[in-house]
Amino acid sequence: MQPEFREIIPEVNLPATETFQLYQTTQDFYQEVTYREEFKNYCQWYYMIAEQHQQELQKMRGDLNIFGFFSQLINGK
Predict the structure, then answer these.
(1) Domain membership flag for residue 3
(2) How far apart are CA 32 and CA 22, in angstroms?
(3) Which domain range does residue 21 map to?
(4) Number of structural domains in the chain
(5) Residue 43 domain-assigned?
(6) Integer Cα distance of 12 and 18 in angstroms
(7) Which of 8, 9, 44, 67 sits 20 to 30 Å CA-CA off 59?
């Protein structure tokens, strides 16, 4: 290895099993980070949509119930 790279890239003489374990642990860690980030984004989207639906429901409750009006006319009440 060239001398200028020795400080940047350390020489590690680990057995293959330890190298694989480190690689697997790193992969598991990044997979967990990705999962948690996606779950956080989903939760934020879900709460935003739930709030929007609550607002729409409140608006609909204040609207005139046309179907109920015609039902009363048909049923003669």
Answers:
(1) no
(2) 15
(3) 15-75
(4) 1
(5) yes
(6) 11
(7) 44
CA nearest neighbour of 1 among 19, 16, 13? 13
Contact 33, 40 (CB under 8 A): no
Distance CA 61, CA 23 (A): 57
Does residue 66 lie in a domain region?
Answer: yes
Tokens of 24: 């697997």
> Residue 64's closest CA among 74, 72, 75?
72
> pLDDT digit of tens for each residue in the chain (77 aa)?
566 666 666 566 767 788 888 899 999 999 999 999 999 999 999 999 999 999 999 998 887 777 777 777 777 65
For residue 54, the model assigns a pLDDT of: 96
> Is position 10 within any domain?
no
